[in-house]
Design goal:
The protein is built from eight helices and seven strands; from the N terminus they run αααααααββαβββββ. By secondary structure, the protein is of the alpha+beta class. It has three domains: about 60 residues; about 55 residues; about 90 residues, no CATH class.
């Protein structure tokens, strides 16, 4: 038999019993049970505590030392490992997110590995990059929307901003008080065009890719009224200006 031990338990029997009933973790319940036994004078020796809890005496000694040094909070505290350091730092993640939002995208996850190496000076494994980009950033391979390599983004943006003003001005001066129909028209040549593959962009970002059409077959003209859906189209052997 081990020798008796002395320890002052600051909490009352009622408080320990209440904490024991509400504890969720098994390890905390065992420690509270130990203190309640000691407080209610049901045990007198460390060996007896170990036998009741099926714990080694050294474990009981370590628990009692923690209680003596820091009280109940120290005894019940759960120590968590700090975890591994991030392989991709926050600045690189932010830069990668912005690059994925541009719409240009990356042709593959391997291309992202190379981008991180060249732009951020990080040598990250393919599996790590795939996990970050696919599951944490929500980016994946998507079919891009083709656009002409001659398209001027600035002019397109200005047109979208001014379209409503232009339509209202035309209606006011040319068709005031009349029923106006707005038609959207475009044309295209059917034939060969640049082959495109899927690219990786951020979630919700539709990628775009510049293409050079080589069309030598025939032209298709079409017009549609957005409000009603009425439309018509015509095919011709050559451009009509």
């Amino acid at each position: 038999m081990s020798r008796p031990f002395k320890i002052e338990i600051a909490e009352s029997e009622e408080e320990l019993k209440k904490r024991l009933q509400t504890a969720n973790l098994g390890s905390q319940k065992e420690k509270l049970q130990m203190l309640w036994w000691i407080k209610s004078e049901q045990v007198k020796e460390q060996q007896e505590i170990g036998e009741r809890l099926a714990k080694d005496t050294s474990t009981v000694t370590r628990w009692l030392q923690k209680y003596r040094s820091g009280g109940l909070d120290e005894l019940l505290s759960i120590k968590k490992a700090p975890g591994a350091k991030r392989k991709i730092h926050s600045a690189a993640i932010a830069a990668l997110e912005e690059e994925l939002k541009t719409g240009k995208g990356f042709s593959s996850y391997g291309a992202i590995v190379e981008w991180l190496k060249l732009e951020q000076g990080l040598d990250i494994e393919y599996a790590t990059v795939y996990a970050w980009v696919r599951y944490r950033l929500g980016a994946k391979l998507k079919v891009p929307r083709p656009q002409s390599h001659k398209q001027d983004e600035k002019l397109v943006s200005e047109f979208k901003k001014k379209l409503g003003i232009i339509l209202n001005c035309l209606e006011e001066h040319l068709a005031s008080g009349k029923n106006v129909h707005y038609l959207c028209q475009d044309e295209t040549r059917v034939g060969l065009k640049t082959l495109t593959g899927k690219v990786i962009t951020a979630s919700g970002v539709k990628p775009t890719v510049s293409v050079k059409w080589q069309r030598e077959n025939f032209w298709i003209y079409g017009a549609i009224e957005p409000l009603t859906g009425q439309h018509f189209h015509s095919s011709l052997p050559q451009t009509q200006r």
